[in-house]
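$ ./design --mode recover --in tokens.txt
reading tokens...
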């Protein structure tokens, strides 16, 4: 019995050590409701979320933008696919990912892509969120979800979390976290749900 306890103890220490290494290296995305003091510094992008299933219908929602205007997913889907990016000011991986998200909007907006960047900060930071978005000169729509309703609706627990919704309302792709190259991965998935460019010829 003593030998077994020793083996279990060593395994326990190894598991804890591995988790510490992952946190220090920044390979785990930050919990959606984590405080700034507890968050890891970075996150590696991972395909898919463990919540909603790819190919399933994306839950409908309506959220206010930074000016208080209500924006519904169904309205944006009338234009084409929608890229949803959940983020917060305290989440450093989120802030690293936003410029790339805006670049995707700029690249694909003419072909029908809409980008909804949904902020999950608390209501008391609303002024800071608005100032950050304005100073960053992002062109995407920023919606607010201060009560965490979207986290429950879309069944995710860490951010940054991205969902690509096809124009028929199905979830085409989801990605957790951020790492260099995430934008290229998303671009490939976006190309799959967009109509071909006008004047382009299939090979």
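writing sequence...
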């Amino acid at each position: 019995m003593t030998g077994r306890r020793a083996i279990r103890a060593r395994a326990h220490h190894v598991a804890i050590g591995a988790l510490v290494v992952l946190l220090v290296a920044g390979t785990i995305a930050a919990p959606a409701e984590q405080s700034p003091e507890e968050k890891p510094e970075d996150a590696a992008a991972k395909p898919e979320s463990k919540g909603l299933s790819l190919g399933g219908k994306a839950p409908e929602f309506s959220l206010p933008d930074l000016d208080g205007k209500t924006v519904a997913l169904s309205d944006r889907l009338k234009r084409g696919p929608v890229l949803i990016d959940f983020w917060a000011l305290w989440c450093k991986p989120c802030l690293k990912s936003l410029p790339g998200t805006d670049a995707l909007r700029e690249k694909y907006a003419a072909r029908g892509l809409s980008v909804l960047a949904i902020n999950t900060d608390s209501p008391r930071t609303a002024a800071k969120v608005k100032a950050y978005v304005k100073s960053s000169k992002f062109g995407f729509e920023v919606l607010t979800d201060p009560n965490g309703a979207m986290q429950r609706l879309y069944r995710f627990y860490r951010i940054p979390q991205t969902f690509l919704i096809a124009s028929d309302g199905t979830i085409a792709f989801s990605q957790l976290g951020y790492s260099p190259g995430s934008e290229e991965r998303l671009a490939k998935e976006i190309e799959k749900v967009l109509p071909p460019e006008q004047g382009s010829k299939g090979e």
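exit 0
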